[in-house]
UniProtKB/TrEMBL annotation:
GO molecular function: pre-miRNA binding; tRNA pseudouridine(55) synthase activity
InterPro entries noted in UniProt: PsdUridine_synth_cat_dom_sf, PsdUridine_synth_N, tRNA_psdUridine_synth_TruB
Source organism: Ailuropoda melanoleuca (Giant panda)
Keywords annotated in UniProt: Acetylation, Cytoplasm, Isomerase, mRNA processing, Nucleus, tRNA processing
Name of the protein this chain belongs to: Pseudouridylate synthase TRUB1
Length: 350
């Protein structure tokens, strides 16, 4: 009997354990499903938070970009034109701020003004001064100051563009020219002088650039000589046929014309092989020109803060107040200040 009861008990226990197994498995499966759903929901929530934080971050960057006002300098490499470089800078800033964004298209528009002061030839490198925000209004006044260049000239060859990018139009001997000869003629090109600008230049005829007309094969008459100023001019190196000049000059001055005129004065000819602008206004290549890897909103903001101390007191800008809305679309306005004086000092927008 006891054995039978024991057998019954054992059987009952077995039945009970067996019955519990599927119930426990079902519960575990349910818990796992719940856990997966919870994890998925958490992931979605985290993604939403991340997306929201990203939008807030981009909006904050856009607001900061809109608040930038002042003048700073960038390092222009050989190759792109000044306008192309400005466009590249603008695109990098807009991309960093996440602009334009489809969800912002119905928001209040805000214009980002950006421009450069003083065209630098595509074959040249060096300091290019940029105005942003209200800083674009400062370019004319501030950049009427001096500019400094290091130019390498090549004796014995003349080109249609007056530099190495052009077609050779004339060749003359230079073997008898000495360092003393070059130093002797430099005085004639120092101070207030008259200079004929190059045909390949940003100067205009009937609303079109002379360089554009020349490339089209149009017959273009040279512009008359005009007054320019050379503050200092020295010969740094002479290794025939190459000579290196250090030039500090005022606005509207063309280094290409200077080198060509020096060649003619030496009874030969010459063209510019390399040109570097080392200083523009108070901005120097070594200290102030931002390389392309520093073209970020934060780096430019810091640069504007630092460079404000370089400007005359009457030109210093007060800090701009941030825009009230964090979500605004930027429409860009390009402003280019001509290198020349008088009627050519026009700020163009497009």
């Amino acid at each position: 009997m006891a054995a039978a009861e024991a057998a019954v008990v054992s059987s009952s226990s077995l039945e009970t354990d067996t019955a519990l197994v599927p119930e426990t498995a079902g519960t575990a499966a349910a818990m796992a499903a719940t856990s997966s759903a919870t994890a998925a929901a958490a992931a979605v929530a985290a993604a939403a938070r991340t997306g929201s934080e990203a939008r807030v971050s981009k909006a904050a960057l856009a607001t900061k970009l809109l608040s930038l006002s002042g003048v700073f300098a960038v390092h222009k490499p050989k190759g792109p034109t000044s306008a192309e470089l400005l466009n590249r800078l603008k695109e990098k800033l807009l991309a960093e701020a996440g602009m334009p964004s489809p969800e912002w298209t119905k928001r209040k528009k805000q214009t980002l003004k950006i421009g450069h002061g003083g065209t630098l030839d595509s074959a040249a490198r060096g300091v290019l001064v940029v105005g942003i925000g209200r800083g674009t209004k400062m370019l004319t006044s501030m950049l009427s100051g001096s500019k400094r260049y290091i130019a390498i000239g090549e004796l014995g060859k003349a080109t249609d563009t007056l530099d190495s990018t052009g077609k050779v139009t004339e060749e003359k001997p230079y073997d008898k020219i000495t360092q003393e000869d070059i130093e002797g003629v430099l005085q004639k090109f120092t101070g207030n002088i008259m200079q004929v600008p190059p045909l390949y230049s940003a100067l205009k005829k009937d609303g079109q650039r002379l360089s554009t007309l020349m490339k089209r094969g149009a017959v273009v008459a040279a512009k008359p000589a005009r007054p320019v100023t050379v503050y200092s001019l020295s010969l740094q190196k002479f290794q025939p046929p190459f000579f290196t000049l250090d030039v500090e000059c005022g606005g509207g001055f063309y280094i290409r014309s200077l080198v060509s005129d020096i060649g003619k004065e030496l009874s030969s000819c010459a063209n510019v092989l390399e040109l570097t602008r080392t200083k523009q206004g108070p901005f120097t290549l070594e200290e102030h020109a931002l390389p392309e890897d520093k073209w970020t909103i934060d780096d430019i903001a810091q640069c504007l803060e630092h460079c404000s101390s370089l400007l005359p007191a009457e030109l210093a800008l007060k800090k701009s107040k941030p825009e009230e809305s964090n979500e605004q679309v930027l429409s860009c306005e390009y402003m280019t200040l001509s290198e020349t004086k008088g009627e050519d000092d026009v700020i163009k927008t497009s």
